[in-house]
Amino acid sequence: MSLFRTKPIDVNANTGLKRCLGAFDLTMLGIGCIIGTGIFVLTGVVAAQHSGPAIVLSFILSGTACAFAALCYAELAGAIGGAGSAYGYAYSGIGEFIAWIIGWDLILEYAIATSTVAIGWSGYFGKILELLGLHLPHALTNAPLDGGIANVPAMIIVLLLSVLLSIGVRESARFNTVMVMVKLTAVVVFILVAAPHVNPANWHPFIPPQVTDINGQSHFGGFGVLTGASLIFFAYIGFDAVSTAAEETVKPQRNLPIGIIASLVICTILYILVSGILTGVVHYDKIDVMAPIADALKQLGIGWAEALISIGALAGITTVMLVLYFGLTRVVLAMSRDGLLPKPMAKVNPKTQTPVQLILGSGVAIALIAGLSPIGRVAQLVNLGTLAAFFMVCASVIVLRKTRPELKRPFRTPLVPLVPLLGMGFCAFLMAGLPAITWEAFFIWSAVGLAIYFVYSRTHSELAHQP
Questions:
Q1: Domains and their CATH numbers in the chain
Q2: Under DSSP, is residue 455 helix (H, G, I), strand (E, B) or coil?
């Protein structure tokens, strides 16, 4: 039964981290992470290769699944808190073994997501330099498998963000807020400028007929909408990252639910608007997969807006990286503090009140992945981990309502167990739509994690040393 031992809940524990974030900061963190690659990169990939104009349905499907999960996150974030997010909730509600699996998946999710976004950032950075008449060598902007030496801009931006995160969470939050305002301006400009140029003919067929590529994979059709929704889930990792800031939040029981729900609502509305306008302006088979929004304006001949969108995309993708990177370090911090990972990784610098060694070590690892991995081969690895984490958060709400009915819950998920069950069902449905290669990578990563747990983590756990 030690596999299912649960961790005591202490929402007011002093962890050495600085409490300085309010509801506005958390909402900006959520928007900072959710609005970025999803709008500026993934809209092109999903519309051109999977859903066509029905990408709107893919976003609605993903957003609905996220809404159920977000309500569950809001309850657990207020009632349990902690830097570990879904890992911590599962540890308190279901048990250590499941918590380890979720934590191990979150590490993959955040590390690969940050690397993927860094690669996307490099693409937009190159586009801005081209607008200025400058061109970076192919060898320095592409991974070895793409014919280059390394994606140097992607590596540099990760290392710069590691320095910012090491300095302090308040400084990082202020930088994030400024960048969020820049990218929201760019998104609103795209909506206002491109909307009058929408040609309804581009929305036909709304759901393109199913086709099979040379690799035997199916695209478009109803299954394409499902696959698109599964891939788009990458964009919604943001509100999970908000919950990792619990130990640095003022009045977390009030502010965390506000930040989680507000950021999800705002971002889902913007996603639907932008994806609908994009496929209305450019036919889905002519969308640029690397920089779809900027290229759409280029095709319309609106040069100044293209430049603004590229700048906004660069700012937007920067904040996504920042928040994902932040989330990774906080999950590892929580797991190390619990003894499931080596204790030295949980060391907090008393001057900056941040885990400096962990941040810098993670930065080097992420930079190497970003510099040496092609985007197409790493992006899909994130989604299964995200969906698995959301699934377990929904399950934890049901379990804790039964096992800890006395727990103070400033925010209560409505219609329990219906809402958590719907969240679990949607997550399972979207998991089924992911490509086989994603499942293979997930099982390999999970097998490595299980080996580490039984060889190291189970015996070094803090709970293993308690009577």
A1: 19-460 (1.20.1740.10)
A2: helix
Q: How far apart are CA 269 and CA 277, in angstroms?
A: 13
If DSSP states are collapsed to H, E and C, what string results for 387-446?
A: HHHHHHHHHHHHHHHHHCCCCCCCCCCCCCCHHHHHHHHHHHHHHHCCCHHHHHHHHHHH
Tens digits of per-residue pLDDT, 160-213? Answer: 999 999 998 888 889 989 988 988 988 898 999 999 999 999 999 898 888 766
- Residue 16 structure tokens: 């050495």
Q: If you average pLDDT over residues 18-25, what whole number do you get?
A: 87
Q: What secondary structure does DSSP assign to 93-105, as a single string? A: HT-HHHHHHHHHH
Find tokens 């603004």 and name the residue: 308
Distance CA 415, CA 411 (A): 13
Answer with the residue of higher pLDDT: 60 or 430. Answer: 60
**DSSP category for residue 21:** B
Cα(39)–Cα(188) distance, integer angstroms:
12
Q: The pTM is what?
A: 0.83
pLDDT (0 to 100) of residue 42: 77
CA 350 to chain centre: 29
Q: What's the mean per-residue pLDDT of the chain?
A: 85
- CB pairs under 8 A, 24+ apart, for 67-71? 67/264, 67/268, 68/394, 68/419, 68/420, 68/422, 68/423, 68/426, 69/390, 69/393, 69/394, 69/423, 69/426, 69/427, 70/239, 70/260, 70/261, 70/264, 71/261, 71/413, 71/414, 71/419, 71/423
pLDDT of residue 332 exceeding 90: yes
